[in-house]
Amino acid sequence: MRTLINRITATEPRVSPLILRVVFAIVLWPHGAQLLLGCFGGNGFSGTMQYFTTQAGLPSLIAFLVIFLEFFGSLLILFGLFTRLVALASIILFIGMIVTVHQQFGFFMNWYGSIKGEGYEYHLLVIGILLSLVVSGAGKVSLDTLLHKKTK
Q1: How confident is the model at residue 105 (pLDDT cuts 50, 70, 90)?
Q2: Which ranges constitute the DSSP H helices of 10-152?
């Protein structure tokens, strides 16, 4: 178990993963807060669960995991705790968003409001950020660094 945690938390003391973590969390956490808490005009947990399970047709477990990952996953990445695992799970989440919702609207975002949805270009950018974190780990100023030192 120690070896597994040690491998997951291994990282180099670099600044670039820290920057990617902070930007990712600044962008994604408010979306998670909309889903879970109803902040920023969101529906909160009950409303989001109802929407995901009835309108979007997601199974309850998947709907719950989406809410959980957007809210808590963004915080875990911000603090650099189990960054590789959370980033990998988030990649799966964003691929799911593309396949189930955004692919039908094409590549580009809906800048002019001419279609009923958004394309997936934003999602590809986020996947790129997350892939970088999977490869590099959390970088400087991360709980992974502290955990890695303790499990060595």
Answers
A1: very high
A2: 15-37, 44-50, 60-68, 74-79, 83-97, 121-136, 143-151
